[in-house]
Amino acid sequence: MTPLKIVAFAGASNLPFWVGQERGLFQREGVEPSLEITPNSVEMAKALYDGRYDLALTSVDNIVAYSKICTHVGCPVALYEQTTHHILCPCHQSTFDAARGATVLFGPATRPLPQLPLMVNTEGFLVAASDYQEPVGPSYWERS
């Protein structure tokens, strides 16, 4: 059996580990996994980059970063409703659902807010993993 050291947060982020174990995936593939729970992203990143683990199961503490430029006409999307997870544009009342990829719930915007991919670097800081994968701003802006 090949050892596989896994680190994860307590809770739902380690669900794939438990499902794989329950269904016999690891044993079938000749893998002997061990799971350790981490207290935070910084410790997880340091341990992973130091080679103490082979795999990390994480959602980066459920932190997301969306463009602040509305996809309708480019106004600054600046209002966040914490109880509903809605992001509001004050110009024309477009409403985006932060919990579902900033999809449009209401208003004239026709596209979700672009999401910036995130990662934890070797020093444990949350940073952009790359540039936006979708165009930022309103659809009518010319793009090169």
What does this entry look like structurally?
The chain is elongated and about 60 Å long. The strands form three sheets. The protein has a four-stranded antiparallel β-sheet, with no helix packed on it. The protein is built from three helices and nine strands. 13% of the residues are buried. The longest helix is centred in the first third of the chain and has 9 residues, at 41-49. The chain folds into two domains: 2-60; 63-144, Rieske Iron-sulfur Protein (3-layer Sandwich). The protein has 144 residues and is an alpha/beta fold. The model has no long low-confidence stretch (mean pLDDT 86).
Which class of the largest domain in CATH terms?
A: Mainly Beta
Instruction: Tell me the structural class.
Output: alpha/beta
N-end to C-end Cα span: 52 Å
Q: Reading side by side through the largest sheet, how are the strands ordered?
A: 4-5-6-7
Q: Count up the domains.
A: 2
The total count of helices amounts to 3
Per CATH, the superfamily of the largest domain is Rieske [2Fe-2S] iron-sulphur domain
- Detail the poorly predicted runs: none
CATH fold group of the largest domain: Rieske Iron-sulfur Protein
What Rg, in angstroms, do the CA atoms define?
Answer: 20 Å
Principal-axes shape call: elongated
Secondary-structure element sequence? EHHEHEEEEEEE
Descriptors for this entry?
alpha/beta; Rieske Iron-sulfur Protein; 3 helices; elongated
Chain-wise SSE layout:
Layout: E1 2-8, H1 15-22, H2 25-28, E2 31-37, H3 41-49, E3 55-57, E4 79-81, E5 86-88, E6 95-97, E7 103-106, E8 118-120, E9 126-128
Parallel strand pairs: 1-2, 1-3
Antiparallel strand pairs: 4-5, 5-6, 6-7, 8-9
